[in-house]
Amino acid sequence: xxxxxxxQGDFVAIGRRKAAIARVYLTSGKGNILVNGKKMEEYFPxxxxxxxxxxxxxxLEKEGCFDVxxxxxxxxxxxxxxxxxxxxxxALLSVDAENRPPLKKExxxxxxxxxxxxxKPGQKKAxxxxxxxxx
Length: 135
Description:
This protein is of the alpha+beta class. It is 33% helix and 21% strand. The chain contains four helices and five strands; from the N terminus they run ββββααβαα. It has a five-stranded mixed beta sheet. Strand 3 and strand 4 form a beta hairpin.
């Protein structure tokens, strides 16, 4: 993956999950994570989502080394957290190529392709049919 650096010297990456898109800007700092202008603890009040977001840093043992600023749109809260995790992992890969093996081993560099299946015409939902009556 090519190194993407913007004019301010931030490492830039994009993460996606379901309908959520996270644009991540990574700079060296003290470990502050801002999501849509709010602290991560405010934006993701559930501890499980906070853990998902921090997993790439925990894997590399670099908690508190980088500041993250993220803009997230679309999807639900879990999809947004997982999109942010992918974006952070890709940005960390841009910082140092030696971060790749541990991140790849944990599966943080792979985009999860699962999305909601579309509803088909002539059916109630994606797979559920209307009730059938023989007589």
